[in-house]
Specification:
By secondary structure, the chain is mainly α. Helix content is 43%, strand content 8%. It has a single domain (6-144), classed as 3-Layer(aba) Sandwich (Rossmann fold), CATH 3.40.50. A three-stranded parallel beta sheet has the order 1-2-3, sandwiched between helices.
Amino acid sequence: MGGTFVSYRAPDHELGLYKEALRRSRIAMETGTLRAIIWQQGESDSTAERAPRYKDRLVALMTRFRRDLGDPGLPLVLGGLGSFLKSPHHKTVNAAIEQAAAELPNATFVPASGKGHIDDRLHFNAAAQRENGTNLAEAVLQLEGS
């Protein structure tokens, strides 16, 4: 769900995004293996008020996902934000994502592609999305030891 804050994904938030993510993950796990969580979010949190709290919220969320999915060592791949974002606070959020990856076990930070946006200074363009996808997938394989 676009345009949301990390806090909207808290387990007790009224939108139910956390519960829905768990529901979908559990359905997928009935016939497959959950190999990692890939996280790419933070643009909406790039404000003076929200950015300083981002790391703690992200660490708590990832820890809770791991616990509720029954895999405390589940690999986490945390993607960085584009350098083109309008808000100068995206640097704080990007640093928070990187710090969260350093703090959480079996986690890694993947910097965002520098290939650009779709002329809105918010969304990655197609070339950047492809590069981000490749880099995130390679990070999963590295964490798995493949």
